[in-house]
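In this notation, each integer encodes one residue's backbone shape. One such record reads:

___
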Amino acid sequence: QACVIVYILSRTMIIPCDFQLQACLVILNGCDSVITTGTGSGKTLCILIPLLL
């Protein structure tokens, strides 16, 4: 799943951070998650990637 995420995002020139990849994998596995990081760091991408897959 991580390879698919990286492949899709690299085609769009968006390179995910480590926390984004980890969060996406947790969400894709159906687990609940809480993401805490600063403003503008890309939390929304953590939600959008699993929705698009």
